[in-house]
Amino acid sequence: KVKAGGRNDISVFTTELTTSMQGRLEMQAILRKAFREKWFVLYFQPQYDLVTRRLTGFEALLRLKHPERGVVSPTEFIPVAEETGLIEPIGEWILKESCRAASLWPEHLTLAVNLSPAQFKKGNLPRLIAKTLKQTALKADRLEVEITEGLLLETSNRVLSQLREIKKMGVALIMDDFGTGYSSLSYLWRFSFDGIKIDRSFVHGVGVGGQVEKLLRSIIRLGISLDLKVTAEGVESAQQAHFLVANDCRNVQGFLFGWPVPKDEVATVIAKDIRVGTRAAQNRHDAT
Ligand code: C2E
Ligand code: MG
Ligand code: MG
Ligand code: MG
Fold first, then answer.
1. Which of 87, 118, 166, 221 sits a CA distance of 20 to 30 A from 159?
2. Which of 163, 61, 167, 175 is nearest to 111 (CA)?
3. What sequence ranges are listed for the domain EAL (predicted)?
4. 254 pocket-lining for ligand 1 (C-beta < 6 Å)
5. Assessment of whether the complete model's pTM goes beyond 0.80
């Protein structure tokens, strides 16, 4: 059955539907309709600093709410959207919608937006981002763009120059799902990333035994020594969180801290954090 929009395993589509030709065609039709009918919704997942225990920002995550089929996961429809070029209008909508939302949050909170390789095809992405920031009055240093190394595999000058332009505006460049690709390491310095998001497969290795913990520790050290913002994604247990903070990975995101929530619930997450902050300040005051 379909559950809340936050989880990964929410889709009601069968594998066959997305892998077979007929399934892809059907998905294409659904995407076109979804865009027209405004079935796309953005969810926002909170990110926290384990040292200060405070909220630092949110990652925008796309959902498709089909009136009959329920919530469809982006892992199922993003590839089809990329194939058909639909990712362009959808991506533009994601940027505008998420920046507009973030412009209403307290100034210290950041917004992370996932970019698809297909959005770099035309070459107008830097201009689109600049325009959106201006329209929504969101400061560039509050925006982080997340890309996976799939984009960088075809390291054309076109991609390179766009990444440079985006960085020049003051937008932070984050490598998503770090550690899962083939050449993440060389890309890190060639494209001068500002941060890495360690893939949850490493995080989930905590307490499992074997080599994964050593690998995770090494990835954190590597990120820190390169002066990168190091974030762990998919943190689900207190044990994982303890391991991360003990190994100096202070930025976290995951179900343990908060599920992706619709725009309307973001205010509640922020209010809760402000209460925590006020209490912390009060405790410090009482202690002195
Ligand atoms: P991602 O950018 O790596 O996003 C993190 C995914 O992990 C999200 O899945 C999120 O819901 C899920 N997640 C968060 N915390 C936990 C946890 O504690 N445990 C587990 N098991 N999972 C957790 P989601 O929303 O289904 O998105 C999947 C992927 O789809 C994203 O991976 C991203 O690559 C892509 N995607 C999502 N939204 C967008 C978008 O707006 N644009 C583009 N181009 N891609 C998007
Ligand atoms: Mg991401
Ligand atoms: Mg990721
Ligand atoms: Mg991912």
1. 221
2. 61
3. 24-274
4. yes
5. yes
